[in-house]
Amino acid sequence: MILLDTSVLSRTLRRRKPGPDEHALTTFLNGLLASDAPVGLPGIVVQEILSGIRDEGWFTELEARLLTSFPIFPATTAEHIAAARLCNRCLSHGLTISPIDCLIAAVAIGGSHELFTLDDDFRGIAKHAPLKLLAYK
User: What is the SS3 assignment for 42?
Assistant: First the structure.
């Protein structure tokens, strides 16, 4: 399973004026979704994507699209604990990573999933944990 990070969805769904980078990313993502590769979302990514949307109509439409298009992987208690350990491990190596990013990584690691992200913080996490990242660019 490939899990999508907030950075990927944010750049493909929420940009009002997409540029060439967003068009290339959207093309890549559409190809991934059209392939046989299974794609899902960590539950916290759903929360992050929907947070800040002030228009209730767009919120409802996007919520429905996310929930009907992807399997959702809520974090387990064990993954919350693993995320805290991961944050601590990264801190001990001089990396300050947000607890949410550590939780996304823990969900991916816990399920042996690959993570599709544009956020460089996950490359830092992958140096100190068995996080598998989808190659893009």
Answer: strand
The two structure tokens encoding residue 40:
């899902």
Contact 101, 121 (CB under 8 A): yes
Axis crossing angle, helix 43-50 with helix 99-110, rounded to the nearest 10: 140
Domain with 96 in it: what CATH number?
Answer: 3.40.50.1010
**How many structural domains is the chain composed of?**
1
Structure tokens at 116: 């599709």
pLDDT of the residue at 14:
61
Q: pTM for this one?
A: 0.93
Q: Do 116 and 5 contact (CB within 8 A), yes or no?
A: yes
Q: What is the mean pLDDT of residues 41-58?
A: 95
